[in-house]
Amino acid sequence: MLGLWLVLVVEAQQVPASPPLIQEWQVPWARTRPRDPFVAPDGRVWFSGQLGNYLAVFDPASEAFERVDLESGTYPNGVAVDDAGMVWYAGNRNARLGRLDPQSGEITTFPIRNPAVRDPHTLALDGRGQLWFTVPESNRIGRLDMSNGELELIWVPTSNARPYDIKLDGRGQPWVTLFGTNKLARVDPVTLDLAEVTLPRPRARARRLEVADNGDVWYLDFSGGIVGRYRPSSESFDEWPIPGERRARPYGAALDGEGRLWLADQGGRTMRLLSFDTQGERFLHDLALPSPSGTVRHLHYHAPSNSLWFATDANTLGQIRLAP
Prior knowledge:
The chain is an all-beta fold. It has strands spanning 5-6, 21-26, 34-39, 45-49, 54-59, 64-69, 76-81, 87-91, 96-100, 107-111, 123-125, 130-135, 140-145, 151-155, 163-168, 174-178, 183-187, 194-198, 206-211, 217-221, 226-231, 236-241, 250-255, 260-265, 272-277, 282-288, 296-302, 307-312, 316-321. The strands form seven sheets. The chain has a five-stranded antiparallel β-sheet, with no helix packed on it. It is globular, with a radius of gyration of 19 Å. Residues 1-13 have low confidence and may be disordered.
């Protein structure tokens, strides 16, 4: 285990007085690409080991890891934990969703019985009994009724759009990045009608997004190294280049309780975590990871502990404790 706290802040424009604290732990199963951590109601952190074909849980109190092996060929991607503590995952290579009961160890799978749909990717819970997910290479967005296992699929009209990240707004509408083109998508949860929103630049490729409480949609343009904001109320855009010596390649993203957008940048020589003040419209933190070579594919904000969780391709699980 690394077990060391790192405090390292490089000034971007204006840095708050109390810097965040970063800690990383070595995941005990080597070269398994841990990813997509999600904090359960009991405070433990679940994540997937994509190349190791497992789910795992980390207890921050004891710093202990436990592993649950999945069926061969699953290659789990996205993870989400519902209010009852059930752990949901996307089987990225066996065309199914899964649910793990941590108490009994029972795993229930929900196959996607459509030969054209094979790669569920990122998950989003709506808090109303529905699990939304993206299927990038199959050009679909899906919804699972968690009570009866009924699956519905929505076709994206733009060819090779690669629906990638998915988040819900306050009205329960899913917003999706279409990583294969310069568009976002919005789905009506009642009719399942899909509307596409074209970004200002033809070469933009939004990979991750977050939806603020006021309905603003924040996106990270992986191709252009840009933070963008789309306001559905006015159908307007604003964009800010991410500072740095090289063009940023923003990947993981999360909004914290203060309205700061956190992003992981893999464009430079080392992995950085930056924050952007969505109210003041300026960049704040610029942090270096203890494991600088580890790509961060996903960030998860946990409000009760005011912290961000991440996993890296350097085979670590990490926590960023934010200032109170």
